[in-house]
Specification:
single chain; 13 helices; mainly alpha; 71% helix
Amino acid sequence: MNNVSSISEIITEVESKWLKLLFSFNKQLFTSYYLPSHDHTHHLRVWQNAKDLIFCLSNYGVEINYAFVERLIIACMFHDTGLTITLDEKHGAASKRICQDYFSEQNQPLNFNEILNAIEFHEDKKYIKNSTSINSINSILAVSDDIDAFGYIGIYRYTEIYLMRGLGMNEIGSKVLSNLESRFKNIENIYGKIEPFFQQTIKKYEITQLFFNNLIDNNQDHNTIFKIIQEEIIMNKKLPVEVYEYLAKISNNRIVKEFSTSILNEYYQFNYSGLLNNKI
């Protein structure tokens, strides 16, 4: 069984080789394509979620080695890159091609096909349910990605991507709740027995679920938050963190102010190793 020290050493070694390199590549891809909900910052958060899950799995008795962590960071940092080509829900195939192209000019890691499969099918919950276990690249990537759809960040991310896909406010609430439930059941199915990981997941899930239930019920404060995202971030293309920092300071609406403060707290809880210079 791995200990915390050895897992930390493995992650540090993998990150020293890959993190800055892949983050820079990822950031460059999204420079000319405005999609803050799924850009290089999202990929970095998914990797952070994956690291947290690695430690939980190690404590659960799962053996973790360097080659496994190397495959995982690559899968995390490429999984949504295909959204620069298509906004389709099955964008994993495009992400897979981008990863293949990237490694066509350098040595491929061990079991490269495992990475490609995880990238291609990370949104396919039926595939994940039927073909993965707790210690597979597929399941860890899919769940680490799902977790970033929960909590206050998840509220923003769902709203942005569905607006970008052309859905209206009246459609988005029910669409999100259906997708949210699918993600939650996926996590419960694979990692429901691993505590306290699952309890933390439940709390974040309930935050997102409550918001979109309120949106469906036409709650005025939640409608206001939705419209702010629509107008300031989607239409005016302002960076989300700048919008929330501004609202946290000046908003007279208690719900809007609390939402802005809460989402900023989630943004800044991650350790980005200085890659973002404290900005999302």
